[in-house]
Amino acid sequence: MASLTSSQLGAPTRHRWPADGPSAGADLIGRDDTMDALHRCLAAARDGRPSLVLLDGVGGVGRSAMATWAARTAEQAGFGTATARCSLLEQDFAFAATRQLFTAPRDADLTTPDHAETPGATHAAMQRLLARTAELAEDRPLLLVVDDLQWADVPTLRWLAYLVRRWSGLRVALLGTICAGEPVSDRSTLDELGAFATRVPLAGITLDEVSGALAHAFDKPVSAPFAAACHRATGGVPFLLGELVGAIRTRERTGATIDERGVAEIGPERVAHTVLNRLRRTGAASVDLANAVAVLGDGADLTSAAQLCGLGGDDAARAVDELCAQGVLTADPRLSFAHSIVRNAVRRALTVGAGIAAHTTAARVLHARHAPAEEVAAHVVAADLTTEPWVGDVLSRAATAAVDRSDARAATRYLRQWCRLPEGGDLRARTLTRLAAVELTVDRDAAEGHLRQALEVAESHGVRARAAACLSSLVFDLHGAAEATRVLRTERDRSGDADDDHAGSLDLRILAFAAQPGLVPAAAECRSAPRPAPVPDWRVDAVAAHHAWRRGEACPDVAELAERALRDGTPDCLGDQPFVWSAVGALFLAARHDSCRRFAEPAVRLARQRGWLGFAARGELLLARVARAQGRLGDALDLVLAASSTGRDRHVALPDLVVTHVERGELTEAHRALTDADADDPAATPRLLHARGRWHAARGDHARALADQLACGRAYLSGAVVPEVPCHPWAAWSAHALGRREEARELAAHGVALGRRTGHAGLLGASLIVAGLVGGNRGAGADGPAALTEAVELLADAPLMLARALTVRGSALCASGQETAGVADLRRAFDIGIKSGALPIAGSARRELRRAGHRPSRALTGPDALTRQERTVVGLAVAGNTNRQIAERLFLTVRTVEHHLTTSYRKLNISGRRELAAALPTG
Predict the structure, then answer these.
(1) Please, what is the Cα angle at 917 between 914 and 920, to 5 degrees?
(2) Residue 781's pLDDT band (boundaries 50, 70, 90)?
(3) Number of C-alpha atoms within 13 angstroms, CB side, residue 542?
(4) Rounded distance, CA 516 to CA 624, Å?
(5) If you average pLDDT over each of 366-380, 469-483, 881-895, which comes out highest?
(6) Most buried one in 166, 624, 756, 808, CB count within 10 A?
(7) Quick check: 902 pLDDT over 80?
(8) Which 8-state DSSP code applies to residue 392?
(9) How far apart, in whole angstroms, are the C-alpha atoms of residue 279 and residue 302?
(10) Given its phi and psi angles, is residue 776 left (phi above 0), alpha (psi -120 to 50 degrees) or beta?
(11) Is residue 451 a contact partner of residue 432, using CB atoms and an 8 Å limit?
(12) pLDDT at site 275
């Protein structure tokens, strides 16, 4: 597609000072470079190369004028244009600026949340907006202009950041203006948007341009000192320069002569004062109306502004005409200040008391006119209004609207104001609990404090139960399972048995926390079973499933309970998270890996969206275990690293990190993770002992490995719990390596018996491998070869353990003269090890093949050896992204990116990043 020509865009020319004086059109003086940048932006968009330009500058420097010029130029070149002007008082109105961009009747529902989805997500709305943008840009190129972007509501900023990440190929240009020194609604998202932008700073015009403007304004040349004084006084800001010229003319009409010293006395603040004086001369009605617009915010309607300042319809209309004629307001048809300097000067002129009184009146006026709840609530908060009987209802509805639009910050402001109302008892406790729920993504420590307050002021057991449920779940997220259980026990002791429903609910939650993935509870909790309680049945099933496993019940029965709980439950609140993960964890323990993954992935997404980081980390930990069990070691490492970098219970993930590194042959990294782990933590000890034993075994120190695995088994059995890790097969393996054949046979027999009793194919298969290795397990009804054959059949869905079984069986077959079958097993084991990234397994199979006089299949190297994630990371690195940029784009940690690159270098047989492009195939 051809680029825009100069004639199509109206090529920029050197601007002279306009004939009607410096305040009209002066903002375009000296902006040739800026116009060139905007021409390039529009030309790129016309060619299907979307671009973003951000104009930065102080108030009055001409940002809005340049935005208007860009929109007019784009329209003349055949672009569609859409413009939004953000307002400080509209920051709490979700998608307020976005709705200004999409004004067609058919676009009314674009930003309405889809209540069929989780209310914590705006993803569906963003997808609709993106699709509508693409549709508009199909007919003709599109320019989106957002003025005063620093005041944009947070959902709008997030949508713009979403748009620029996904607009490849769209004929769209985005122009934003940012006023320096003004408060920013969401600095992090604005910075993210800025990373994709061409930043064009707008500075004041030069001294020569100021001198020329003054000569034109006064119809005579001015002295160099006078021009320099004017330049210093205004910083070259066109708006201030125009106002300064007006102030000088006013003084000269009184007979005064203004020289450079007089200019210095006027200064910028005096310029603002001059604006106010000019405003006051228009009359009391105009001043009152300007004050009303300053309080209501840009975009105010005339009726509300008139009611706020007590003007009748005709008087208000005349005041608007006068203010527009004076260049103070614009009306199109809603009322806005023509310039932020004027608006800020008017606001600063209001005393604190007058401002509070004005916001109070504004809240009453808007409520009486049935304005949207969020619009009324903004003034309720600004006035700290607590006396009106309707305030609580307005704040509640405003908070609901903000939550529906995923604006937690606004919802938090409204609910915090609601908590200032003179209410107590259960109503206050419910409000505090609701506030804490939305504070989770804003201020987690404040959420904890508000839940503790709710527990203190609640009167009924039902309200106390909900507060205790949310508090214990949040405390688990912040401080770990032990502290969460302590919260529940304290409430249990306080309430006693006066209310069976409340007591039963608390008891069930205590059991649920004892069943969290990776934790080993006290013996009494392990032996307890959930008693029927007046809570939804799915919660009882969720806890019962986990405890059924721990008592050694059959895996199919455990899985049935867990799946029923997850099918019947509606686990979308913080208080229900312990039950969700009890059930999902039970599915993993019962070796239902596909089901575990199916339920865990959406639950992790929900937890991330709601800010339940501790529960999200537990879910990622379970998904890492599933990935490892299914031979996806690259995915397992990504997930366990994500889990170990989140929350204050991160040490719970470290044993899994150790085992994953050991499976991949990364013993140095495994040792580093071991040194980070807390061996004295009772919750982590059994799994940590197992992980350390695996590391010792990988290093050939089977004496220490055996000791750790036996200690792990004792830790579980002390609570009468079936171990969550296969410590007995690994202990048997190390005992065999030490030549302690009988001990190995006994340990293997124990694992076989437990595996047969529970129906756990993984535990049974792993135990049968060692049983076959040491010469059979007559008690299990299988000799050595039969045990190995059964193990291979059982482990079809567990690639890593299957490869171990194939290696042992293949070696035994070769030793007994069945070389063809044995070599086939060994080559299959080698291929599984290579495909999974389990280098030690592949190495073991290779050694056995060579011992039999054969070579393995050629190891997969080069680009074909890269995993999907490794290919993605390498591609981004070749494109020039830094490790941090790759991490942010793929939602990984920098450490994970470094690991993927290091592994890729090894597979590609190169030394570093500079050789990547040459090592990859072209085309």
Answers:
(1) 135
(2) very low
(3) 34
(4) 15
(5) 366-380
(6) 624
(7) yes
(8) H
(9) 18
(10) left
(11) yes
(12) 67
Cα separation, 537 vs 508, in Å, equals 11
b/e map 468-490, b = 16+ CB within 10 Å: bbbbbbbbbbbbbbbebbebbee
Closest by Cα among 676, 758, 754, 667 to 713: 754
Please report how many Cα atoms fall inside a 13 Å half-sphere around the Cα of residue 921, on the Cβ side.
Answer: 7
The answer to whether 365 touches 307, Cβ cutoff 8 Å, is yes
DSSP notation for 238-300: HHHHHHHHHHHHHHHHTT----HHHHHHHHHHHHHHHHHHHHHHT-HHHHHHHHHHHHH-TTB
3-state SS, residue 172: strand
Bridge partners, 178 (sequence order):
56
Q: In which residue are the tokens 């070691």 written? A: 633
Least Cα distance to 168 among 196, 208, 200 occurs for 196
Yes or no: say if 66 and 51 are a contact pair by the CB < 8 Å rule: no
Helix, strand, or coil here: 201? strand
> What are the pLDDT digits (tens) for 484-530?
888 888 888 887 766 666 677 788 888 777 665 544 443 334 334 45
Q: Can you tell me the distance from the alpha carbon of 642 to that of 617, in angstroms, rounded to the nearest whole number?
A: 7
Amino acid (1-letter code) at residue 415: L
Question: Identity (one letter) of the amino acid at 90?
Answer: E
Q: Which amino acid is at 777?
A: N
Q: Which residues are bridge partners to 173 per DSSP?
A: 51, 143
Look at phi and psi of residue 813 and say left if phi exceeds 0, alpha if psi is from -120 to 50, else beta: alpha
Q: Which domains does the chain have, with CATH numbers?
A: 31-201 (3.40.50.300), 284-482 (1.25.40.10), 863-919 (1.10.10.10)
As a residue count, the chain comes to 923
Residues 6+ apart with CB under 8 A from 116: none
pLDDT of residue 686: 83
Alpha helices, H only, 47-90 = 63-76
Q: Is the Cβ–Cβ distance between 121 and 606 less than 8 Å?
A: no
In this structure, are residues 202 and 34 in contact, taking their beta carbons and an 8 Å threshold? Answer: yes
Beta pairing class for 142-147 and 80-85: parallel
Encode pLDDT of 300-353 as tens digits.
889 999 999 999 989 999 999 888 877 678 887 889 887 666 777 788 888 899
Alpha carbon separation from 248 to 16, 208, 252, 255, 273 (Å, rounded)? 22, 20, 6, 11, 13
